[in-house]
Amino acid sequence: MPGAAGEEAGESQSGTAVGAEGLPPAIAQFHAQHDLSTPCLVIELDVVAERFTALRTALGEASVYYAVKANPEPDVIRLLAALGSNFDVASPAEIDLCLRAGVSPHRLSYGNTIKKRADIAHAYGLGVRLFAFDSAAELDKLATLAPGAAVICRLLTHDTKADWPLSRKFGCTPDMAVDLLLEADERGLDACGVSFHVGSQQRDPGQWDAAVALAASVSREVSRRSGDQVRVRVLNLGGGFPAHYLEDVPPIEQYAASIRASVDRHFPPGAAGGRPGLMVEPGRFLVADAGVMRTEVVLVARKSHADDERWVFLDTGVFGGLAETAGEAIRYRLVTSRVGPRGPVVLAGPTCDSADIMYQHHRYELPLALTDGDRLDVLSAGAYTSAYCTDGFNGFSPMPVHCLPPSAQVRSLAVGNQEAGELPHVLRGRRGGPVPGEDVHPGP
Predict the structure, then answer these.
(1) 14-56 confidence digits (pLDDT tens)
(2) Active site: which residues (predicted)?
(3) How confident is the model at residue 200 (pLDDT cuts 50, 70, 90)?
(4) pLDDT for 9
(5) Residue 179 contacts by C-beta under 8 Å, 6 or more apart in sequence?
(6) Whole-angstrom Cα distance, residue 83 to residue 221?
(7) Which one, of 291, 275, 218, 282, lies nearest residue 255 by Cα?
(8) How do residues 160-169 score in pLDDT, each as one tens digit?
(9) How many CB atoms lie within 10 A of CB 17?
């Protein structure tokens, strides 16, 4: 059953080495050397670098834009910047965070399609020149407040088989996207591309195919209606690449092969509009498996004398970093400090909100000897955990995050901001001009 006490020594499902305690050795050693208060999150930066390298190797033709919202830790941003990543940002705060980490504004994509006017002006004033949109109203704001910027129109897709769907709220239909891109060009913007997202924790590599086909239809129609004066030069494939929770997932190489085949099929040589350059926006894939959240058992209780099911209350919960357990969509692997016979449990958080229950329907089993004061580690917790913590709800503070410094080997891979700071070729000016934003905010 999920949540067995400890993991067997050797390899975990994530492919990250684990020790006898069921934790990655570096994180286990860090805990052994430091008496950390709980809850807390420990990030192994070497694993972040490993995932980034794996993605670049598998899908090297795509420009990588790390989704900062997944984990905005400055050490994570600095490492990925040094490795050559660009960044997908969702707010002025994330823009400022990246700039403080030494990232040039021309390496940022403002991917949120819902932006205040003041936020667009703030980003543009700092040198950001790539924006996403999916509506006429947002296009009007961009044309007014970000003149000449490159814009990408997000398509509405159906993200079946994703553990965390993102459909309905974002994107527009293909026919609307064509109209919006042509209007963007008429209003002086660089209508450079289209984007989509097949859903977070997408476990089916084939789910990109239908979305790529939609993007290709938009590309052809934009080219036809503009007399080939406007071309979709950028295809943003979004994120969705999965982490390793309870369910097995295919390797990243399988996703890359499937995506490459889809692009080849729907953008064949000589196709109207040409073949676009590729972007990807990984978040979860890069950071989830790098993190372990340590919690403490606060209370183990039963609801009746005859109840075999125990309630295990932790010192964190839905409001303290485990928001993605809502609907039990993301099912984490758990490791406890106890061994022995196990029994069914309901896992809940410490707040006075009845919604603070992580797992009630999906069956977890934990050791019968489990008691208050025991530790419980949540594996693959590096994404969408610390970023989701509330600040002060019921008086609980956000959990601290500790990043383990990268190894010498990883540091040797880092190319440094100056060398990594060139804008990907897919976003260069449509008429062969300067890189958007390059002359606005020079530097690394």
Answers:
(1) 334 444 468 999 999 999 999 999 999 999 999 999 999 999 9
(2) 352
(3) confident
(4) 23
(5) none
(6) 37
(7) 282
(8) 654 545 556 7
(9) 13
Q: What does DSSP say about strands 200-202 and 162-164: parallel, antiparallel, or unpaired? A: antiparallel
- Decide: 83 and 415 in contact? Cβ < 8 Å: yes
The Cα–Cα gap between 329 and 201 comes to 10
The answer to whether 133 and 180 have CB atoms below 8 angstroms apart is yes
- Which positions ≥6 away from 63 have C-beta within 8 Å? 86, 277, 278, 279, 280, 424, 426, 427
Task: Please state the domain extents for the chain.
Answer: 10-43+289-404, 72-282+414-427
Count other C-beta atoms under 10 Å from residue 281's C-beta.
Answer: 26
The domain 10-43+289-404 is classified under which CATH number: 2.60.40.1930, 2.40.37.10, 1.10.760.10, 3.30.565.10?
2.40.37.10
Closest C-alpha among 275, 211, 206 to residue 238: 211
The alpha carbon dihedral of 280, 281, 287, 293 has a sign of negative
Using CA atoms, how far apart are residues 359 and 361, in angstroms rounded to an integer?
6
pLDDT over 50 at 441, yes or no? no
pLDDT average, residue stretch 202-220: 93
Beta strands in 3-112, from DSSP E residues, in sequence order: 10-11, 17-18, 40-44, 62-67, 86-89, 108-110
Under DSSP, the state recorded for 275 is P
Same fold, 10-43+289-404 and 72-282+414-427: no
- Three-class SS state of 246: coil
The CATH architecture of the domain made up of 72-282+414-427 is Alpha-Beta Barrel (3.20)
| Res 74 pLDDT > 50 | yes
Is 98 catalytic? The answer is no
CA–CA gap between residue 195 and residue 216 (Å, rounded): 11
Average pLDDT over residues 134-155: 98
Report the alpha-carbon distance of residue 64 to residue 50 in Å, rounded: 14
Chain segment 336-386, per-residue pLDDT in tens: 989 999 999 999 999 999 999 999 988 899 999 999 999 999 999 999 999
* Burial environment of residue 344 by CB neighbours within 10 A (0 to 12, 13 to 18, 19 or more): middle
Q: Is the pTM of this model over 0.85?
A: yes
Measured between alpha carbons, how far is 6 from 9 in angstroms, rounded to an integer? Answer: 9
Scored b (16 or more CB within 10 A) or e, 201-222 reads: bbbbbebbbbbbebbbbbbbbb
